[in-house]
Amino acid sequence: MSTLTLTIVTVFILGYLCIALESFTKVNKAAVALLMLVACWTLFMFDPGSYLPDIAGDKISIAVNEIIEKHLGSTSTTLFFLMGAMTIVEVVDQNGGFNFVRDMMKTKNKKALLWRITFMTFFLSAILDNLTTSIVMIMILRKLIQERKDRLIYASLVIIAANSGGAFSPIGDVTTIMLWNKGLISAAGVIKELIVPSLVSVALPAYILSLSLKGEIAAPAIAGGTVTEANELTKKQRKTVFFIGVGGLIFVPIFKSITHLPPFVGILLVLGILWTVTELFYRHLHKDEEKGGMQKRVVNILSRIDMSTILFFLGILMAVACLETIGVLSSMGQGLNNVFDGNHYLVTGIIGVLSSIVDNVPLVAGCMGMYPIAEVGDMAQDGIFWQLLAYCAGVGGSMLIIGSAAGVVVMGLEKITFGWYMKKISLVAFIGYLAGILIYWVEKSFFGL
Hints:
With 449 residues, the protein is mostly helical. The chain is 73% helix and 0% strand.
């Protein structure tokens, strides 16, 4: 590893530590992430030729700009998807769309609610994606749990359940979508062989965390701000908003499979339809109702989107893109393969742990580039390596709160600190992660799945 590469990695690690210690430094993680982005790419420009040996002279700056713009384009699809999904869910919430869902979930028993939230998140994440599901479930939780100490436990389980639910579905996580589109896993194969390990990886942490919940839920069970009953809209209109919003989110993967356009295009389609429908609903308001309705219109909700979370995503993903460009991630994967002598359980297990530190998308992309698909054996379609990679890269992100898109979003929405999550949740998530790998090994060793 060259001195420049080592310097870039050091800057990334230092930035990561500052993000992890946000509660002590009192510096917003988004500011640190943006500084990481700029620092890593500025250092890269000290000697870009060492990473781009086939390009020389004046063409180097052009090539670097193209590389950055390519990564920015890829990152922007995630950011626009996030902004669209957050806006859709907020519109549904502000207009009372989640009220009847909240009523169905309502119970006085804390443990009963924990299991309801866990399994609803798990299966919803397989249909939608872990990012969108997390936003939806946090909005519902805010209406159910008043006590912040308890709500943090539920919110943490939403992260674990969303990541586990996304791991066994071909459309539940960005990494499974990548593996599925490349033909490395099949929809039927990954569901059949990973659903039980994924279920164990969330059920065990849920049971452990349920032991810390005692008593009944305080009434009225409403949290996270003022109560919104959406009196400006009729019950029928509120349900229409709900079904357009949530139904539209479910439709996004179908839209992608039909049009082959990126998921963010489908999200913008749903947002455009929901925006139009709500504007039509509110245009007939009387003057005394207009003030309340204005606050719930999309144009005002857009101004309240949490931009610090968006900028944090931008900084982290672009900083990781720099590590990918200088070859650190692919070298790490190759080194793991050499050290563990091709043991798929150990290699993918370590990759899963790493996915809790850096974004799992470039890690999986690096593995896809390193290991070509084989006709038969562990590297064939639905082979042990690819299925373990889907499981580990998805579930492993739960071990740290910034290890997954779901974690980052929940962190921003509920203001959970890195330190609290690491102290209270990381070990529990790790236990579930290892249990799922063990269950997969049992499946393969004794049941021949």
